[in-house]
Amino acid sequence: MTGRAAEAGKAPAAPDPLRTDLHTHTGFSDGHDPLGAVVAAAGAAGLGTLVVTDHVRADTTYLPGYVAAVRGARASTPVRLVCGVEAKILDTEGRIDLPEDLTGIEHVALADHRFPLPDGPAHPDSVRALLHEGRLAPDEALRLLVLATARAVERVPEGRTAHVAHLFSVLPKAGLDEDGVDAALLEPLARACRERDTAVELNEKWRCPSVRTARLLHRAGVRLAAGSDAHRAQDVGRFPWVAAALSDATAEERSAS
User: Fold this and answer.
1) Distance between CA 80 and CA 91 in Å, rounded?
2) What's the CATH code of the domain at 133?
């Protein structure tokens, strides 16, 4: 088969994950620049989709103005804007630190800002102390973190999409690393992500998860995506580390095709 017939026989190309930035911040939370500058930067970076994910907690009150601002910005850009929030995973039941009223919020970035333990979110220094004192084993800490993240994926409020933000970014803060991560450990998270079509972000700011972990997730059928975690407009859609990590993590699939 040659020419146009050959082209017609090809499977459609998969969307380029580097044309979507799943993780950005504006002045509504701890971003340096206003929403308009972030949106303009997304267009300049050639993005097709920008997900704005300003930080929230259960007591956050700025959401009505935030939602209105994102809706208003859609008229001034060809970039598809998604109104999202970033919220921390609280415990091993997967509870998420979200306001009760999420009207207008379309997407949730699930983040390990603290270490989710059975009795709630622990500061990394507290986890480090538990490890040092022998009251928490490293492999058990990893298991609990993966379990909490998987359950958070399952608890995302109905009608919202989600992704796992900067997976394992909390580990080095607690004196842990990804050496103990294997396919068996990741399976609860991989299963939850597959069942809910939830991506795991490769995070430019924190350079996590590792390429090795990303490869394991990819082999398990988990969709990998790009997040700049930009807190300045100039960093939106800029993914040099992510691009290389994504290429390495999916190399086996590309060579097989």
Assistant:
1) 33
2) 3.20.20.140
Contacts of 16 (CB under 8 A, 6+ apart): none
Asked if residue 62 belongs to a domain, the reply is: no
Q: Is 107 left (phi over 0), alpha (psi -120 to 50) or beta?
A: beta
pLDDT tens digits along 124-162: 999 999 999 999 999 999 999 999 999 999 999 999 999
Distance CA 70, CA 72 (A): 5
Which residue type does 237 have? Answer: G
Q: Which domain holds residue 130?
A: 14-56+73-252
- Nearest residue to 109 via CA among 79, 82, 127: 82
Prediction pTM value: 0.93
Give the pLDDT mean for 169-191: 97
pLDDT (tens digit per residue) in 39-55? 999 999 999 999 999 99
Measured distance CA(255)–CA(26) in Å, rounded: 39
Peptide bond into 209 cis (omega under 30): yes
Across-strand partners of 116?
121
